[in-house]
Amino acid sequence: MSDHYVKVKVQLEQMKSCNEDAEKKAVDTKEQLPVPSPLASVSPDPSSITTTGRDASNTSITCKHRGKSRSKLGKDDKNSCGKHISDLPSHGSVVSAHAGRNLNRLEHEGTLRVKGTGKILQGKSETNGNYVSIHPSKNIQEARREDGMKLTRKRRPVTVDTAKAKTSLEALKLSIKQLKWKEFPLGRRAACDIYWHGVSFHDNENIVSGQVNKFPGMIEMLRKINLSRAMRTMQELFPEEYDFYPRSWILPEEYQQFATQIRMVKENDATVNPTFIVKPDGGSQGDGIYLIRDPSDLKLMVGSQAKQAVVQEYIHKPLLIDKLKFDIRLYVLIKSMEPLEIYIAKEGLTRFCTEPYQEPSQKNLSHVFMHLTNYSLNVHSGNFVHSDSQSTGSKRTLSSVLYRLAAKGVDIKKVWSDIIALVIKTVIAVVPELKVYYQADIPPGKPGPTCFQILGFDILLMKNLKPVLLEVNSNPSMRIEHEQEVAPGVFEYVPSPVDEQVKVGVIRDTLRLMDPGHKKPSIQSSQQRAGGFEHGEEIPMEAETQERTADEGALPSLCLKQVYPKYTKQFNYLRLVERIAALFIRFLGVKGNMRLGPTAFRTFIRTCKLSNSNFTMASVDILYIDITRRWSGVMHDSKEAGMGLQAFVEAFFYLAGRRFKSLALKEQVVSLLELCEVQLESQSGVEDRRSVSCSRAHPRAIKTQTLGLSNPQLTSPAPLRRAASQDYRLHQRLKPRALRANVEN
Ligand code: ADP
């Protein structure tokens, strides 16, 4: 053994004691594993469909695709419809979990191959199975260079804390296995890279690093009432763009408006007899939902028993397949909120009713198996069909349904691009308030994890193929088993291949995108890709071009498609409320606060120079009291005093209307925003200059920042900071906020 080799060996021995910190800093080299790429195959169902769509309402076709391969079908569709559907959901994007399991047979090699010497040096494995990377010292590096040695090393597996994963656990385990990552089912004393929570951000408290699969405030934000409020704000600003959300009223506070409007509609036209669907605010899985045809049918209770609910226009002409109503469950990943990054799963699920659909009539209003598509309800119907095939039964893949529609001549490309637009617009509607929650739970400057989240969008296709948003689930079920009645009244969970195929793909690919070692595509390059398509144009369906790591070469292509910032150009103009929220957050000023106090509101008015002789500070105080009092009456679950974001938005709209009377609401808001932002910029400039002249010690701390999620403590002018802390003393935030019951949908 040469002296040199002895030296190398000694150094390697020393490095075996490297701790996990050192491990993290290790050089990120990977071994490529020669794995065959498994592909799922789809065999379309040979049954016939009757589609009552606008484009297709006059025809009824029988498609026979028995035994055809998916690629063959795609080709046929292309020929028959002139459409390229090759990039539509499912196309080669989702691998069967069974096939994926083959990947797990591949072993991790715990060895270091010393090229050129034929020698193999053993690496070190931790007791938990982690591979400890070795830090080459300068000497070794030099020595290697001299010897021409090259090391090919394993990357430290990504660590996932699955202790709180609850019902996602099975799908998560399979995903982690496919990725050859390291699972910590009982948690871990040291920090993990990823924490998978089954319910909310707060499932594990005190996480200070890594990534959590839930955003703070998402549960609250997506409750039916809050979602309806956020959508309504957007409908006021952009009525046409947000017409995909059914007209909704919030009960009990809007009962009178609801009753009056319906009475007027009926008086105007006696032949109109609309139907409404009533949904309890905290409800899920169809619980407590019922249909009505008249406001007097509402099961309202008074006083403290008054039920919080949303009453919504009932979509009475849904698209039918096999004469059945169905809805789409689409999985959407919010990869990051700042900057906003949204991915859509190319494969989803469709849930079918179990009783043939008829338009609502007094006779059938209570037929839940006809009107409600919830799996949890229909599974109890005698007609529910459990099927191992993706294209038959009461739960099918989205792609199988789209193929059937395409075969019927439906413009699937248009449907899919409308769905993408619906998703982006919905996320844009909820992000402003989410940012308020985010800064309260993870204040800038405080150590904390970053967040991502998979959401479940429930979408109904109307007869005319227009997608309608029913609701968004913060906690979509990731179960890959289904309940089956094995004996009368005895239910058991049995594997569900359709769920497994879709959900394991979504979780695995979410993890791949969140891989801390994954090279992130730059925002700029994503935005550059967004170029070329203007607002209003149809979104193209090009294939996803995701960078892959060496290990990922073995995995199927991502089933998640980036849609934002990819389509920034088409949708960025909708992000007005987010700019209002940025002002709000800036004037909140105090970490952890979610409500604006009266002094901070005054400071906002003063700083932005919004008061004058016609609108005095006394009027400002009255406006504050007026709006805050009204909102505190409707925000029943709120324990905090002060002005929340939604109330601030209302005040902002009012101020915009006063100032720019002649303009339409959207232009009023844009004009006021510009005015405020200019004022704040100049204020920051003054503050900047003042601070630099007073002290040269910390010029960076008060540097002008954009109105994003910057630290308001650092950016706010001194009077603002004083005002904010006074408000804080008055309105200390009460924690924890009420969470919806531990329900998944
Ligand atoms: P939940 O959270 O209880 O599942 P949803 O809002 O998803 O509540 O409604 C349950 C079901 O009711 C949906 O899956 C859908 O079939 C039906 N539904 C909901 N809203 C409407 C609507 N506006 N028009 C027609 N059907 C609806």
What's the topology here?
Blueprint: H1 3-15, H2 20-24, H3 70-81, H4 97-101, E1 111-114, E2 119-122, E3 124-125, E4 131-132, H5 138-147, E5 151-152, E6 159-161, H6 169-179, E7 182-184, E8 194-195, E9 211-212, H7 218-221, H8 224-237, E10 248-251, H9 255-268, E11 276-280, E12 290-292, E13 309-313, E14 320-321, E15 324-337, E16 340-345, E17 349-352, H10 368-371, H11 375-378, E18 395-397, H12 398-407, H13 412-441, E19 450-451, E20 453-461, E21 467-473, E22 481-487, E23 490-495, H14 497-514, H15 523-530, E24 560-564, H16 568-571, H17 576-588, H18 598-607, H19 617-634, H20 645-659, H21 665-694, H22 712-715, H23 718-730
Parallel strand pairs: 6-7, 6-8, 8-9, 9-19
Antiparallel strand pairs: 1-2, 1-5, 3-4, 10-13, 11-12, 11-13, 14-15, 15-16, 15-17, 15-20, 16-24, 17-18, 20-21, 22-23
Helix pairs in contact: 6-14, 13-17, 17-20, 17-21, 18-19, 18-23, 19-20, 20-21
The chain binds adenosine-5'-diphosphate.
Which percent range fits the helix content? 25-40%
Task: Find the count of extended strands (DSSP E, 2+ residues).
Answer: 24
Q: What's the mean pLDDT score?
A: 75
Structural class: alpha+beta
Radius of gyration: 28 Å
Largest sheet: 8 strands, antiparallel
The end-to-end span amounts to 64 Å
Shape: globular
Bound molecules: adenosine-5'-diphosphate
Proportion in β-strands: 5-15%
- Uncertain ranges: 1-87, 89-141, 146-151, 521-537, 540-547, 692-742
Number of helices: 23
